[in-house]
Write a structure and sequence with these properties.
Blueprint (H helix, E strand, L loop, with lengths): L4 E9 L24 H10 L5 E4 L6 E5 L6 E4 L1 H10 L1 H17 L6 E4 L11 H19 L6 E2 L7 H9 L4 E4 L4 E6 L6 E2 L10 E5 L5 E6 L2 H9 L6 H10 L9 E8 L10 H14 L4 E2 L2 H7 L4 E5 L32 H23 L6 H7 L1 H5 L3 H11 L7 H16 L4 H4 L6 H21 L4 H8 L12 H9 L6 H12 L13 E13 L2 E12 L5 E12 L2 E7 L4 H16 L3 H12 L11 H39 L6 H18 L7 H13 L7 H21 L4 H8 L1 H7 L7 H14 L2 H4 L3 H14 L5
Parallel strand pairs: 1-4, 1-12, 1-13, 4-5, 5-6, 7-11, 10-14
Antiparallel strand pairs: 2-3, 8-9, 8-14, 10-11, 15-16, 16-17, 17-18
Helix pairs in contact: 2-3, 4-5, 4-11, 7-8, 10-14, 10-16, 14-16, 16-18, 20-21, 22-23, 23-24, 25-28, 26-30
């Protein structure tokens, strides 16, 4: 290494859990448009780009290299975020794991990834058992993904107390990272007197050992708060070189001993909060790496090389995001995200309601679980192995190792574990962080509470909901529509509540629209048909059947008989029964099919009511995602009819409108609306097929410009364009002698610039860089000159120049 002066940049990468508490999937979030949800959007803007970030030259015009930022920084990812990424963004997920492996090689056998407490619970406000499980689950999740033991662990919001540090040390964690204002005092190890410090006087360039009452100890790193603040909020990422120099200049040149300048921010700073922040980070890392007087390092490597010479005391119940300690998560302390006129007086009643629920559930859990497990709390700690992989083999192993015997009721045993899992999820910190109790993050934690209450009732018949609601009603909402937390529960949480009957209904209604209903995605449930009949007569459809629905989480299951008739558009009637006898079902099915085939739809409905009763289900009973998909499909035909009508007007009256325009006669608004609709519809279609229809794009944009019309959904067009350009460059790579293909692609960019479209070209730019490297030397000589000229032009259009 170049010297005994080091720099470490830490990114805390985290998103709150957004999964429906019953379905275990994220339902569509319109606010993230054009992406499906916020995880997907932030992954595209930040997590993915940091696995392949560009390093530019000093002028910012030439790509010198593409690098995985994670391999050269310190980082942690929330376990609940990684569980999403493992399924929905595998390329980024693998890039993160590879970065840790690379960092082990780079930093003398010490990986850059740190673990995190499992679901971002504020540790000082948790009871000891929850603290232990949060740490154990965080470690087990880390080991499963990174294939090694973690040396360090990130505490949610860096919220800390002595008990939490004791638990980290007990579980073999050697260090954690805190904010400078969390340091209370320090002294040289061996000295007697403590020296008080604050956020401006603590020496953040040193590591500290914290000796604990148990006799154990843990290393503490207090990050540089001023530089971290400048990165997150004051524009330091606007200049990668300035960022690097700020870090280097923070070193104490008069101190000849080893020292570490280090910062910590939300990882989303690098690309999501600050566009191209990942490139500023990449440049800074490259600049520091080449500097003769400093070296990059991660916390684990620094801790292994340099034993702390100082020890520190912490400020109990403190954090990095609340100047009042941890009051942001239990009081109206004044810390908020800035909604004018809003107060957070709801925080304490919400915390009190959840504490009451947790303590009540603990009594139930201990009483009930003792009938199933040797040690209920130890079983909860070990349940993470099931959470991480819900296979029958893992469940059976868990029951064999933790159960009193292998004959226990597996369904009840798993319900008890799920009750405790949701009782922890309901303390996810984001529930208190923002301004309003009806915000999506707070609704999410209340949803977890609702699921825990439901599981409790299924286990004991004791319903805690009424008491919980009474306590929630003490939490005032800033929104007049809701008035208080009780109404938030009724209006925003209860509609999501699900049981096997609702899943069965969802399956029955959805099966009308599916060619292969048994392969219909049912989230964390599965359906198996015993009998299934489907009949169609033009637009009308009829399905009847008997199916078994099983939860893949708790293994609970129910059998249903169902019948659904579809009358067209969104008119649909469905019925469900748990207890219809088989002979009665087949008799009903025979009569219904005959009536349907003879066109006697009123008789079909009458027969359904006779056998199933008056309670009906409709398309509005579907879960959000499937309901949206089916309604989109239903409305598609109507939209096609509307478009056909508008297109006839467009084609028929185009000469007339053109004549009006040429003679400076105002064009009627109805015509402008028609033309804008048709041209926008055509523009979207240009990016749908395997190859971009550049000629059509040119025609459409010329028309839009001629009539002074606008692109309606620029976000969607930009996303489609970005995806299509990337696919087209992959084809260019495969057909390096096809001049027409690359020439056609280059014609697209002036058109996009004309309408100020700014698609995400990150993947395309990286692929172009790879192609440039491949083209060097003899390979380039084999390519046609015209192709080389077009390839260079493509680089200009992508904003990429290569050395």
């Amino acid at each position: 290494m170049a010297s005994n002066k080091f720099i470490c940049i830490h990114g805390h990468f985290y998103q709150p859990p957004r999964e429906n508490a019953w379905l275990e999937v994220i339902e569509i979030q319109d606010s993230a448009h054009p992406y499906h949800d916020w995880n997907e959007r932030i992954s595209a803007e930040c997590y993915g780009p940091n696995t392949a970030s560009r390093i530019l030259d000093k002028e910012g015009g030439v790509i010198k290299n593409i690098t995985n930022n994670y391999a050269r920084i310190s980082f942690n990812f929330g376990p609940t975020l990684l569980s999403w990424m493992e399924v929905y963004d595998k390329e980024t997920y693998e890039g993160i794991l590879e970065a840790d492996r690379e960092s082990i090689e780079r930093f003398d056998g010490h990986g850059s990834a740190m673990a995190q407490v499992f679901n971002h619970m504020i540790m000082p406000l948790a009871n000891r058992r929850d603290k232990e499980t949060q740490v154990i689950w965080g470690i087990r999740d880390f080991e499963k993904r990174f294939k090694r033991k973690p040396a360090g662990m990130w505490l949610a919001e860096t919220a800390v107390d002595t008990e939490s540090l004791e638990i980290l040390a007990e579980q073999g964690i050697s260090f954690t990272v805190l904010a400078p204002r969390q340091a209370k005092a320090f002294r040289k190890i061996g000295d007697k007197d403590w020296i008080g410090v604050n956020d401006q006087t603590v020496n953040t360039r040193k590591s500290y050992r914290c000796h604990l009452p148990s006799g154990k100890s843990i290393i503490l790193f207090f990050y540089d708060g001023n530089i971290s603040q400048s990165v997150a909020f004051n524009g330091l990422l606007n200049d990668g070189r300035g960022f690097a120099e700020r870090l280097i200049n923070a070193l104490d040149q008069s101190d000849q001993s080893h020292q570490l300048v280090h910062i910590a921010t939300d990882g989303e700073t690098y690309g999501h909060h600050h566009k191209h922040g990942e490139m500023a980070l990449a440049f800074a890392l490259d600049f520091i790496e080449k500097h003769k007087d400093v070296s990059l390092i991660n916390y684990a490597s620094y801790a292994a090389q340099f034993e702390p010479e100082l020890e520190a005391q912490i400020i109990e119940d403190s954090s990095w995001s609340c100047v009042h300690g941890v009051e942001r998560w239990r009081e109206n302390c004044g810390c908020n995200s800035g909604k004018p006129g809003y107060t957070q007086t709801w925080r304490k009643p919400l915390r009190d309601a959840l504490d009451w629920l947790r303590d009540t559930l603990c009594v139930i859990f201990e009483s009930e679980a003792s009938n199933f497990f040797k040690d209920p709390w130890e079983a909860r700690n070990e349940y993470i192995k099931v959470v991480l992989k819900r296979t029958d083999e893992n469940v059976n192993r868990f029951i064999r190792l933790q159960g009193l015997n292998e004959q226990i009721d597996v369904n009840k045993a798993l319900r008890l574990m799920e009750l405790q899992r949701h009782a922890m999820l309901m303390y996810t910190s984001c529930g208190w962080f923002f301004d309003e109790i009806s915000g999506i993050e707070t609704v999410q934690v209340i949803q977890y509470a609702c699921r825990a209450i439901q599981l409790s009732k299924q286990l004991t018949e004791k319903d805690l909901e009424a008491e919980f609601l009474t306590r929630l009603e003490l939490a005032p909402s800033n929104v007049a529509t809701y008035e208080n937390g009780g109404n938030v529960f009724r209006k925003l949480v209860l509609p999501s509540k699900t049981n096997l009957t609702r899943v069965g209904m969802h399956y029955a209604v959805s099966s009308i629209f599916e060619d292969d209903p048994e392969n219909l995605p049912l989230f964390n449930y599965k359906a198996t048909n015993e009998f299934f009949v489907k009949k169609e007569a033009g637009e009308q459809k009829l399905v009847t059947g008997i199916t078994k629905v099983q939860s893949l989480v708790t293994r609970s299951e129910k059998k249903f008989a169902f019948a659904v008739i579809y009358l067209g558009k969104h008119d649909l009637i469905g019925n469900l029964s748990l207890d219809i006898e088989l002979d009665n079902f087949f008799g009903m099915q025979f009569r219904m099919v005959n009536a349907f085939e003879e066109g006697r739809l009123a008789d079909v409905i009458s027969i359904m009511q006779t056998y199933f009763g008056s309670e009906k289900y409709s398309i509005w009973s579907l879960f959000k995602e499937e309901k949206r998909k089916i309604l989109d499909a239903i409305s598609h035909q109507g939209m096609e009819d509307l478009e056909s009508s508008l297109r006839r007007t467009y084609n028929r009256d185009y000469p007339l409108v053109n004549a009006l325009s040429n003679n400076d006669i105002p064009i009627p608004k109805a015509y402008r609306t028609t033309f804008e609709y048709i041209l926008n519809a055509d523009l979207l279609r240009c990016f749908q097929p395997d190859k971009i229809n550049v000629k059509s794009v040119e025609r459409i944009v010329t028309e839009l410009d001629h009539w002074n019309l606008k692109i309606e959904d620029t976000d969607k067009v930009e996303r489609l364009a970005g995806d299509s350009i990337f696919k087209e460059i992959k084809r260019v790579r495969a057909e390096r002698h096809n001049v027409k293909r690359i020439e056609r692609l280059n014609r697209l960019f002036p058109v996009m610039r004309k309408f100020k479209l700014d698609p995400n070209l990150h993947q395309s730019q990286n692929l172009y860089f790879e192609m440039s490297v491949e083209n060097k030397g003899s390979k380039m000589q084999d390519l046609p000159e015209e192709w080389i000229s077009q390839f260079n032009l493509l680089g200009d259009n992508l904003g990429v120049k290569v050395e």
